[in-house]
Write a structure and sequence with these properties.
Largest sheet: 5 strands, antiparallel
Structural class: mainly beta
Distance between the termini: 54 Å
Shape: globular
Low-confidence stretches: none
Number of helices: 1
Order of helices and strands: HEEEEEEEEE
Helix content: under 10%
Oligomer: single chain
Radius of gyration: 22 Å
Strand content: 25-35%
């Protein structure tokens, strides 16, 4: 059956994924429902406003239960298209004078373009990834990660 070499895989044990069509040749695809589309950590964004710099925060839906995204690369004004990151840990500008604790809920203050711990008038951003002292200019945030906000 096998090649006779020590450690060689016998032909009958070759994973079936090798014989599936290319579109299905992912291990994860074998175990997911037929309704699965994608991971959802990146969002295709069509810009209708001013140019967006790489790393800039874009408010997708405002309010304390809203969502933000971070531009993966620069997006041209008016008709530009690009990708927004909706997950992962990002280092964003924060309100100096305010300290964050580990896993604290954080919000995006679009008026002052910075993170804050106050939900009043701001958009949910995620949870603090580690701590940030009050003198720090930036904080790490796990984007859109709050099981209590739906």
């Amino acid at each position: 059956m096998g090649s006779g070499r020590v450690g060689a895989m016998p032909a009958r044990l070759i994973p079936i994924a090798r014989f599936l069509p290319q579109s299905h040749n992912k291990k994860a695809r074998l175990f997911m429902s037929m309704t699965y589309v994608q991971r959802g950590s990146k969002y295709p964004y069509a810009n209708t406003g001013s140019a967006i710099a790489s790393g800039a925060v874009v408010v997708l839906s405002s309010g304390s239960s809203g969502r933000i995204g971070v531009a993966e690369s620069a997006i041209a004004a008016t008709t530009g298209t690009g990708t927004l990151l909706l997950g992962g840990v990002q280092s964003l500008t924060k309100h100096t004078g305010e300290a964050f604790t580990n896993m604290q809920l954080l919000y995006w203050d679009a008026t002052n373009t910075r993170l804050t711990g106050s939900s009043t008038g701001n958009t949910f951003a995620g949870t603090s990834w580690g701590t940030a002292n009050s003198a720090a200019a930036t904080a790490n945030v796990l984007l859109n990660d709050n099981p209590f906000v739906q």
